[in-house]
Amino acid sequence: MSKWYLWCQLSIMLAFLWLSGSIHYEVLILKFTTYLPS
Questions:
Q1: What pLDDT was estimated at residue 35?
Q2: pLDDT, tens digit, for every residue of 1-38?
Q3: Is 38 a domain residue?
Q4: pLDDT given for residue 33 in this prediction
Q5: What is the DSSP letter of 35?
Q6: Given CA atoms 29, 32, 37, 38 in this order, what sign does their dihedral have?
Q7: How would DSSP label each residue in 8-19?
Q8: End-to-end CA gap in the chain
Q9: Is 10 within the bounds of a domain?
Q10: Which phi and psi (to 5°) does residue 22 adopt?
Q11: Which domain holds residue 15?
């Protein structure tokens, strides 16, 4: 699986959660992204 595909999926998930107002889950995902390799 390519990194671009993973980032695309992550971006879509973040956008969906943000539009849904799921701030709690958005924060959890943002914390998770800090563990991903740059």
A1: 74
A2: 688 998 999 899 888 877 777 667 777 778 887 776 65
A3: no
A4: 79
A5: T
A6: positive
A7: HHHHHHHHHHHH
A8: 16
A9: yes
A10: -85, 70
A11: 3-33
What pLDDT does 15 receive? 84
Q: 29 to each of 5, 21, 36, how far by Cα in Å?
A: 17, 14, 11
Q: Which amino acid is at 3?
A: K
Number of residues written out for the chain: 38
| Global model pTM greater than 0.90 | no
Is residue 23 in a domain?
A: yes
**Residue 36 backbone zone (phi > 0: left; psi -120 to 50: alpha; other: beta):** beta
Split into its structural domains, the chain has a count of: 1
Host H or E run for residue 38:
none
Amino acid at 4: W
pLDDT at 38: 54
